[in-house]
Amino acid sequence: MPTRTVRLNGKTVQADYESAGSDSSPSSEQLLYWLRNRQGQHGPRFGCGIAQCGACTVLLDGAATRSCVRQMHTVPDQADIRTLDGLTDGAEPHPLQRAFVSLQAAQCGFCVNGMVMGSLGWLESRIAAGNQAVPTEQEIKDFLSGAAPDNTRNYLCRCGTHTRIVAAIRTAAKEMLG
Amino acid sequence: MTTALTPSRRQFLTGAAAIAVAFSVGTGVAEADAGDGLVRIDDTAGEADQSWLVLTEDAITVYSGKVELGTGVQTSLTQIVVEELRLRVGDVRYVQGDTLLSVSQGGTTGSKSIQNGGVQLRQAAATAYGELRRRAAAALHVDADKLSAADGVFRAKGRTVSYAALLRTGSSVLPLDAAEPVLAPRDYKVVGTSQPRVDLPGKLDATFAFLHDIVPAGTLHGRVVRPPGRNSRNPVIGNLDRAQAVEGFVDVVQHDRFIGVVAATEWAAARAAAPDTGITVTWSDGPALIPQADLPTALRDPANHYATVVEIDDGVDPLFAQADTVLAAQYFTPFQMHATMGASTAVADVRSQPDPVTGIQATIWSGTQNVTALRGAIAGLLGLKPAAVRVIYEESSGCYGHDGVDDCAADAALLSQAVGAPVRVQWRRQDEHGWEPYGGAQAHDMKGVLGKHGITAWSHLIYAPTANSRPSAGNPGTLLAGALKGLLPDPLPASSVDTSGRNAPITYDIPQHVEARLIKSFETTGPASAAPVAPLTYRIPRTTALRSLGGFSNSFANESFFDELAHAGGHDPLRLRISSLPDPRAVKVCTALLQVWDHRPRGGDGVGAGVAFHQYEVVNAYVASYAEVHIDATTGKVQVDRVVVAHDCGLVINPDGLRNQIEGNVVQGISRTLKEEVQYTGDGITSLVWQSGTPGAFYDVIRFNEVPRIETILVDRPDQPPLGAGEPTIGTIGGAIANAVFAATGIRVRELPITPDKLLGGTS
Ligand code: FES
Ligand code: FES
Fold first, then answer.
1. Domain co-membership, A121 together with A157
2. Across the interface, do A107 and B398 touch by the CB < 8 Å criterion?
């Protein structure tokens, strides 16, 4: 079995991954399964397996990535992967985690991995691109709806926690930019 | 009554010295069981009806069959317990939903966790507090009424004794004492405050373990391969060699129409089960379902009914006969799904022999709402005694009723039994959307008569499939795997009352006739028979309990029709509701909306507002909702811009938790009103995914940028018992939006969902 070595939440980790097919049409185990089953990550979750809900979102080299459809052979060696499991810095929760808790922005909480990791990637890339503006409520809603210039992927919450999730992201964004 | 703990109770309790109070949920006062050990797995455990509040030096523990379903119930129950014990918010441990440790109180359904559990738990905590106080009085040699308590310490005359020290003095097993006084609401310090949810920090840093994170050592992975249609038959498995060649392949399991694949890893299982990389299955077509487009007519066709239920008859026939004008309208809602966020998952560990100590042969981890019923049904499926099966509840994603989780547990059990190892089954999204049990399509025939001052006669005829096909302990055919294996489900229900007919009756002071025609979901043994006939052949998709059951559709019809009559009579729709409601609490939630109502957009220019009211289940929480919409003139798309909900569910335990639940009801209600519809052709479901890049059916749900501003007005009634809040609001949303759409456009949409085609094609 081939092996992949990545930086996972700041640590170098290595594990095999399953693969099949030929050189011209390879296929391999999804990043989601690899992270959950071989790296013990519980943040990314299986919601749909078809890139339509966001529950499996991780940051792959800084970009929000739907790990349920991302096959391991396409993940470069030495890639930098961040998951919800590694978001707390030491004992210090990330502003997004804090805001979701303080605004009680969850019901079942199954979806929040997607909103936290997705908006983290989004906010960090906006900031990296020099955009220091706190996103408006509408910008956040459009981002989460896959209707933003920089994101076409929809995020789902079936419990209807939408307004709190948007408020939590905006609160965290203020803190990240403050 | 104080008795020594029996040895079996000592095993059950975590500390040697304790106070244990027995209580039951949903009934009056529990009996204390002074006999055999409480925690006993036997065939009749499901009939026992006890929960336990246990105080030891180390912990406060509630043993309960109730399960937390993403609604913050646990946090609210904790507030109730610590209040009566005069403690601040601290940890109360819950051992819930494990058939080995707790005895069933039925499932977590119908938003009743607080309503039924809370009141009993409060009395149990008061009983425990009473015992502590008696011990404190003895310890400090004072009258009990001289004692004060705070933060785990009793005080009297400058002397103190801690709860911990009192608990060390011995064990008491007490019946719930209904006479033990509870705190007066004005003395509440914890109840009525917005306590943060105890589970959220762990859900935000991924340390909280959902069901999906449970993978015992040596667990294999299973996938199911469903038929293409409800009635497909005679499967023939091909390309077995291709599956066998997948690295990690373990087995293909078949019981008639139940087919599953087991492998060492998820990816291997997925590949061995996929038609392009693993097995292929060919099926012969079964009979088609009633075509989707024909449903409104077919539901009304007597050939599809097995029973008629007259729910209420106030003798309205003469009123209709004498009326100059009878107004009538027909409504319809489609099949809709729970569509839980995480595809159903379960783990089963079925051994060839029972454990010599516990007698357990099969252990199932499931997100079920009813561990006891599932245990019985799975036992039958596996050919085991219920005593040999242990079902452990683990939290899954929000379910909103009876969704796919029970069926998934049965899948895992069958696969584990076949391969002799623990198996984790995770459905694909397509399995979930295609095979979960849906909320039923319903049709409604409404009739009403207007007098000078309002509505004088009312009739509601519903055409409804079953709203309950939950697992039943005695019949494995109630599980999808059982039915695919060739077993038959339970007969269809004999009644609609408070199920498919939930909220079909109105609580306005108007004489009414409410009648239900019950729909044959499958072929039965005769024209008026509710019993399935083999081979099981569905006429419509399988249906069950979806959030508020028939209440969503029934209230949509009632509240839309009320609006039609109000307009026909020239009445203000909200004020006509207020003048027609006899119950002051009902009036109060409606008048709470008057201010926003009187400043509503004037309507008619593509912008409008509507209201709706109902009292959940006719006797529980009161909800009035206001919705404001605008309609895009070119696309016909309805956007809800603002929703205001006035809500009275008695004593409010946790205001912020309550608001969170109401908001969730609003959002899901909008989604069901504007977007959601299960699609099928022949006998196969086609809306198998959330969205589709290419043309094709999908199950559309609300997006973030379609969610309006939501405001909640909580009417707190500290002197009234707490009522469930998980479902009451959703039923008002369909009517409020449809009424707002009418105000905005003059078009009365009587079929959900209110999609653009209905407005572009409609006439005012
Ligand atoms: S699980 Fe990956 S997007 Fe839904
Ligand atoms: S909180 Fe349950 S799906 Fe979002």
1. yes
2. yes
Q: Is A46 in the pocket of ligand 1 (CB under 6 A)?
A: yes
How far apart are the CA of B430 and the nearest CA of chain A, in angstroms?
8
**Could you give the CA distance from residue B399 to residue B68 in angstroms, rounded to a whole number?**
11
- Which comes out higher in pLDDT, residue B169 or B532? B532
Task: Give A105 Cα–ligand 2 centroid separation in angstroms.
Answer: 9
Round to whole Å and give the CA distance between B525 and B541. Answer: 19
A160 is in which domain, residue-wise?
95-177
pLDDT value of residue B45? 30
pLDDT at B26 over 50: no
- Hey, which of A52, A59, A155 would you mutate to test ligand 1's pocket, going by the most ligand atoms within 8 Å of its Cβ? A52
* Any atom of ligand 1 within 6 Å of the Cβ of A51: yes
| CA dist., res. A142 & res. B91, Å (int) | 39
pLDDT at B588 over 90: yes
Q: In whole angstroms, what is the distance from residue A108 CA to residue B397 CA? A: 6
For B525-576, the pLDDT digits (tens) are: 999 999 999 999 999 999 999 999 999 999 999 999 999 999 999 999 999 9
Domain at B213-286+344-360+374-427: CATH code: 3.90.1170
pLDDT band at B53 (very low <50, low <70, confident <90, very high): confident
Residues of A in contact with B215 (CB under 8 A): 37
pLDDT digits (tens, 9 = 90+) for A7-49: 999 999 999 999 998 888 999 999 999 999 999 999 999 999 9
Among partner residues A83, A97, A156, which is closest to B701 by beta-carbon distance? A156
The alpha carbon dihedral of B349, B351, B356, B359 has a sign of: positive
Q: What is the pLDDT of residue B229?
A: 97
Does residue B172 have a pLDDT over 90? no
Give the distance from residue B595's alpha carbon to the nearest chain A alpha carbon, in angstroms.
23
Domain over B292-338+437-544 is classified CATH 1.10.10: no
- Please state the atom number of ligand 2 nearest to the C-alpha of residue A109: 1
Q: How far apart are CA B341 and CA B321, in angstroms?
A: 51
Residue B24: what pLDDT?
A: 66
More confident residue, B120 or B473: B473
Shortest-distance ligand to the CA of residue A156: 2
Determine the 3-state secondary structure of A98 from DSSP: helix
CATH 3.30.365.10 positions along chain B are 9-204, 551-760
- Tell which one of A60, A68, A152 to mutate to probe ligand 1, the residue whose CB is within 8 A of the most ligand atoms: A68
**Ligand found nearest the CA of B395:** 2
Size of interface A-B (CB pairs under 8 A): 186
CATH architecture of B9-204: 2-Layer Sandwich (3.30)
- Total of domains in chain A: 2
Helices and strands (H, E) in chain A, number of each type? 6, 7
B128 CA from centroid of ligand 1 (Å): 47
Contact A111 B267 (CB under 8 A): no
Separation of alpha carbons A139 and A131, rounded Å: 13
Q: How far is CA B516 from CA B315, B519, B632, B678, in A?
A: 16, 9, 37, 23
List the single residue in B with minimal CA-CA distance to A137. B705
pTM (2 decimals)?
0.94
Q: What is the pLDDT of residues B97-149, one digit of tens each?
A: 677 665 444 455 445 566 667 788 889 999 999 999 999 999 999 999 999 99
Contacts of A125 (CB under 8 A, 6+ apart): A62, A63, A150
A110 Cβ inside 6 Å of ligand 1: no
- Nearest-Cα distance to chain A for B283, in Å, is 26
* Cα separation, B234 vs A158, whole angstroms: 36
